[in-house]
Amino acid sequence: MLPEWDQKYSINNPKIDLQHQKLFELAAKVEEFSDRSIYQIELKKIIADFFNYIKIHFQDEETYMHEINYPYLSQHKLMHKQITHSMIKLIQNIKSTNDLKEKLYTIVNSWLIEHILQHDAMIEYWRKNTHEKNQKNNSDKEETIKPRIFSYQCQCEGRIHKISYEIHLKIQYSKAKFKCKKCLTDLVYCKDLTEN
Ligand SMILES: [Fe+2]
C-alpha cells in the first residue's frame, strides 16, 4: 500500500506541496490499475501525464532549492535525473502491459517512498534547522524533525555503521568511498536496515 499525502510531508512551500499531493494522487492511480486489467493506451496516457508532471515538478523544486541555498542541490538534481532517466527507459522498453505495470509500480513506489519521503523531506529539515539557528527564540514553537541516519555494512561480522545524510549523499551521488577503520573495506549501503 502506498502512503497517502499527509501534512507531515509538507516542505513548507505551497506550490511544491501541491505538486507532491498531485503526485501522490497519480501514484494511487498506478496502484489502483496494478490490480485490474487496463488497455495499453490508457496506461500510456497515465505514464505520459506522470512523466510530464514530474518534469515540471523537478524544475520547480530545483528552483526552490536554489532560492534557499540548499547545500545538497547538485546531488538532489542527480537523483531527479536518475528518476527521469528510468522513466524514459521504461517508456522505451515496453514489452507487455503487465511488464509495464510492474515496472511503473516499482518506479512510482521507490520514487514516492524514497524520494519525497526521504530526500525532499531533507530540504525542509535543512531549511528548518537553518531558520531555527537564526531565530533561536522561536525554536520550540515548531516541531523538530529528526535527522535521518543511514545504515552501512562492512566486512566485520554484524557491524552496522550509522551514517549521516551528508556522508550518505557523498557515497551515493559523489562516488566518495568510506572505509571501516577496523576491517578497511568499503562501506556498503543497507537499505533494509535503514529506518524510514
Ligand atoms: Fe526532489
CATH fold annotation of the largest domain: Four Helix Bundle (Hemerythrin (Met), subunit A)
Number of strands: 3
The strand order across the widest sheet is 2-1-3
Present as ligands are: fe (ii) ion
State the helix count. 5
- Describe the largest sheet: 3 strands, antiparallel
Kindly estimate the percentage of residues that lie in beta strands according to DSSP: 5-15%
Structural class: mainly alpha
Overall morphology:
globular
User: Percent helix among the residues?
Assistant: 55-70%
CATH class of the largest domain: Mainly Alpha
Unreliable residue runs: none
List the secondary-structure elements in sequence, H or E.
HHHHEEHE
Average residue-wise pLDDT: 84
When the domains are counted, the total is 2
- CATH architecture tag of the largest domain: Up-down Bundle
The span between the termini is 15 Å
Describe the structure.
It is a single chain. The chain has five helices and three strands, in the order ααααββαβ. It is mainly α. The longest helix has 38 residues, at 97-134. A three-stranded antiparallel sheet has the order 2-1-3. A hairpin with a 6-residue loop joins β1 (149-153) and β2 (160-164). The chain has helices at 14-33, 40-67, 73-92, 97-134, 165-173, and strands at residues 149-153, 160-164, 188-189.
